[in-house]
Design brief:
The complex is a heterodimer of chains A (158) and B (257). By secondary structure, chain A is of the alpha+beta class. Chain A has helices at 29-32, 38-46, 107-116, 143-156; strands at 7-11, 22-26, 69-72, 76-78, 81-90, 93-102, 121-125, 134-136. Chain A has one domain (7-156). In chain A, strands 3, 4, 5 and 6 form a 4-stranded antiparallel beta sheet that branches. In chain A, strands 1-2 form a two-stranded antiparallel sheet. By secondary structure, chain B is an alpha+beta fold. In chain B, the strands form 3 sheets. An 8-stranded antiparallel beta sheet of chain B has the order 1-2-3-4-7-10-11-12. Chain B has a two-stranded antiparallel ribbon with strand order 5-6. Chain B has one domain: Roll (T-fold), CATH 3.10.520. Chain B contains 6 helices and 12 strands. The longest helix of chain B has 22 residues, at 27-48. Classes of the chains: A alpha+beta (158), B alpha+beta (257). The interface between A and B is large, with 47 and 71 residues. β7 of chain A pairs antiparallel with β12 of chain B.
Chain lengths: 158, 257
């Protein structure tokens, strides 16, 4: 990943603003990412004769796929505490977003975070053996209800 | 089931309602209170069932009665339906395509919440109250662990594909098509919904969780994202190629397996 390609945009649809809500993550780790150490050096030797300020950093090269890996974002601090998240990229697709720090742990803060950052992580679940008190499944699991529904379908000739 | 618990089951609306309490709760207290809980639930069914032609809701649907003629609970439930239709941006909608108002999507959880005031009469420090996928809880079952709720395999295999603990979220509702075919109408598309096989929502109020789980089944991913603005946690499941593809909100209170 080149130094300029430091902005990752995640689409995050949101009912209050169905089309517009977009989450932007800057990725300062890209400049110092391991394996990319050659590049800043190259730029440094080429840069002195031109502009010393890297304001004109190259735009993201869309044809170049992001390397697989975990990309932490910067720590952003506000009155509620520190916020930081990281993304996991596999085959140029963001496969997970993790909150490394999200303000205080207070429920109110979590709720506010949810308000600000609606997102869904994708994954594949396997059947596993948990020790649970209750199982939440789709409604109408009662045998009586199945029987009743079957009767209704029979009555309807279906 | 933990050895430190007692379970009682009552039946209403052709469904089983289960109450788990610490084993320290006396059988006498349970024997006294549970029949009242059962009759409360059966009363709600007699008012709201659309399968019973003489229920108040059936009469309302046929235009034989006005809301003013019905018991106040009818207006209360219809108000709740409107509240959640508004909150979910129209994705939860109790109006059927044929114009009949069908609040049965939340009547069950509304009735579950309505009997909660009786639980303190048991002298229980903790309880777990569930019916067909919807569950709410209070306290902790013992000193070492919170209440734990599994999420059923949406394919109806009887397996559990995920599990959460109830802490800040004290209620979970799951909506899906596993056992009944497509039964959730998408009011905006005008067709049966096929976004997900199953949706679970965790939060503080089982009626709200129930309404949102139904809304996400009907409205899909956009509604699942919107649920988070209400402070709710979401797990969606789709079954493809023999696998369960899931999405979860960052706050989904999963237990490590």
């Amino acid at each position: 990943m080149v130094g300029g390609a430091s902005v990752v945009i995640l689409g995050a649809g949101f009912a209050a603003a169905p089309e517009a809500a977009v989450l932007e993550l800057t990725d300062p780790g890209a400049e110092t990412a391991s394996g990319a150490t050659d590049q800043p050096t190259t730029e440094a030797t080429a840069a002195p004769d031109t502009s010393p300020v890297p304001e004109t950093s190259t735009p993201p090269d869309v044809s170049e796929e992001a390397a697989d890996g975990t990309y932490p974002g910067p720590v952003v601090t506000n009155i509620r505490g520190d916020y930081q998240l990281q993304i996991v990229v596999v085959d140029a697709v963001v496969t997970d977003v993790e909150f490394l720090a999200a303000g205080t742990e207070a429920a109110e803060s979590v709720s506010i975070n949810a308000r600000a950052l609606p997102i869904l992580r994708e994954e594949i679940l396997e059947a596993q053996d948990w020790d649970v008190d209750y199982v939440s499944g789709a409604s109408f699991t009662s045998p009586a209800m199945v029987e009743s529904a079957q009767g209704a379908f029979d009555d309807a000739g279906l | 089931m933990r050895e430190s618990l007692k379970r009682r089951v009552v039946t209403a609306m052709t469904m089983d309602f289960t109450l788990d309490v610490p084993a320290s709760v006396s059988d006498d207290a349970l024997d006294t209170v549970m029949p009242f809980i059962e009759s409360d639930l059966q009363w709600a069914d007699s008012i709201f069932s659309l399968y019973k032609p003489d229920s108040e809701l059936s009469r309302l649907g046929r235009g034989e009665a006005s809301i003013g003629d019905c018991v106040p609970a009818v207006a209360e439930v219809l108000d709740l339906c409107e509240k959640y239709r508004d909150e979910t941006g129209g994705a939860f909608d109790a109006r059927r395509p044929d114009g009949v108002i069908d609040p049965t999507g939340i009547v069950k959880t509304w009735a579950m919440e309505r009997v909660r005031w009786r639980f303190p009469l048991l002298g229980a420090s903790a309880w777990l109250w569930g019916c067909a996928g919807d569950v709410s809880a209070q306290g902790r079952p013992d000193a070492t662990a919170p209440w734990r709720v599994g999420i059923a395999d949406p394919r109806g295999t009887g397996a559990t594909v995920d599990a959460i603990e109830l802490g800040t979220a004290v209620a979970v509702a799951t909506s899906g098509t596993a056992h009944s075919g497509a039964h959730i109408w998408d009011p905006r598309r005008g067709s049966a919904a096929h976004h997900y096989a199953q949706v679970s929502v965790a939060g503080g109020d089982v009626v709200q969780c129930d309404a949102w789980a139904t809304a996400i089944m009907a409205g899909g991913r956009k509604v699942a994202l919107a649920a988070q603005a209400e402070g709710l946690h979401v797990l969606t499941c789709s079954a493809r190629e023999g696998k369960i593809f899931a999405e979860r909100s960052p706050g989904w209170p999963r237990i490590a397996p």
